[in-house]
Design brief:
This protein is α/β, with parallel strands linked by helices. It has a single domain, classed as 4-Layer Sandwich (Metallo-beta-lactamase, Chain A). It has 12 helices and 14 strands. Strand 12, helix 12 and strand 13 form a beta-alpha-beta unit. It is globular and about 60 Å long.
Length: about 350
């Protein structure tokens, strides 16, 4: 398997601006017969999540946000996940909405132990700082929390705490709380071992998501379950090796026909965009869902979870996401939805 897919020059600013118009993709799959009641859907998902976590035994994975890209206002929130093991919560990525989504799980904020950032794009790190402040107000114990991620995570944490100092000081004075000074932050300049204790071993692997360097995937080996995250990447042999024999692989996924439908619609409207250049960019940074199935099959994982979905629209049904991956992966395939507990 080739380690990366080729790339061409392309404007990231144009890409991000363009992806805000994703409703044009609704033609890819039939829309629901009735309008989606987002509030009712969220409430139902929250109830199912809380029920799954109540008195849960063993490690549980909760998909807090399953959408790709820094686009607000969608049903799918930006990327974030949490693993719950023996009463401790381990968060992977902090896209917009992570704090509210975490609260909806019913996991207490005092349970937060580790936060892992895969790379520094806004749909993965934009709410890292706010999570720390709101979490502290809601009972998180800063002395128990560690953060890991690519440089300059330590500097980013320090700068955010400095920017929030007035807010933190006012709150600490009003409620007689110990001020939030900071947490234990670890920059990860290179891939490899991240941390190890009697409950968990964490390792990282370098992935390909240009021009972001470094960008990581992570593997979490708990005493009862192993869960791997691809991060944002093209299909990589290194991810398959990292995930070898894991119980769960959470992998980003791009549904190429929907992306192509979107960009062709934009061209038809007169937008000066090259379909070929746009698709070359996407293939240089992300993983077509069919290739994700090959990665999962090679890794020999039990369950493949498709998350960080591109495009993150509900009009693409689960069957459309699952079918390309199932061409190669013969295990269980779960199409991620926000607040799904696995």
């Amino acid at each position: 398997m080739a380690d990366t897919i080729g790339t061409k020059e392309w404007s990231r600013r144009a890409l991000l601006a363009g992806m805000t118009a994703t409703p044009a993709l609704a033609a890819v799959a039939p829309a629901a017969a009735q309008p989606l009641n987002c509030a009712a859907t969220t409430e139902a998902a929250e109830a199912r999540c809380r029920a799954a976590l109540k008195n849960a035994r063993g490690t549980k994975l909760v998909l807090l946000g399953t959408g790709a890209g820094p686009v607000p206002g969608r049903t799918r929130r930006m990327t974030s996940h949490v693993m719950l093991h023996d009463g401790a919560a381990y968060i992977v990525d902090c896209g917009l909405g992570v704090t509210n989504q975490f609260a909806r799980t019913g996991i207490p904020f005092r349970a937060i132990r580790d936060i892992y950032i895969t790379h520094h794009h806004p749909d993965h790190n934009i709410e890292y700082g706010p999570l720390l402040v709101i979490g502290w107000i809601q009972g998180m114990q800063p002395s128990n929390v560690r953060a890991f991620g690519p440089p300059p995570l330590t500097e980013m944490t320090r700068d955010y705490m400095r920017s929030a100092k007035a807010t933190i000081d006012f709150w600490a004075e009003d409620l007689r709380m110990k001020p939030l000074i900071g947490i234990d932050v670890h920059d990860l300049p290179t891939a490899g071992p991240v941390m190890r204790d009697d409950k968990l071993t964490v390792t990282s692997v370098l992935v390909e998501h240009p021009p972001v360097k470094p960008a990581y995937g992570y593997r979490f080996d708990f005493t009862d379950r192993s869960i791997a995250f691809s991060g944002d990447t093209v299909p990589l042999e290194a991810v398959a090796q990292m995930a070898r024999g894991a119980d769960v692989l959470v992998h980003e996924a791009m549904y190429v026909p929907a992306v192509e439908t979107y960009i062709r619609a934009q061209v038809a409207k007169g937008r000066p965009v090259s379909v070929e250049a746009f698709m070359a960019h996407m293939k240089a940074d992300h993983s077509p869902v069919e290739a994700v199935g090959r990665i999962a099959q090679e890794a020999g994982v039990k369950t493949l979870v498709l998350s960080h979905l591109t495009p993150a629209i509900e009009s693409i049904g689960d069957a459309a996401w699952r079918a390309p991956a199932a061409k190669h992966f013969k295990g269980e395939i779960i199409v991620g939805h926000d607040l799904m507990a696995i």
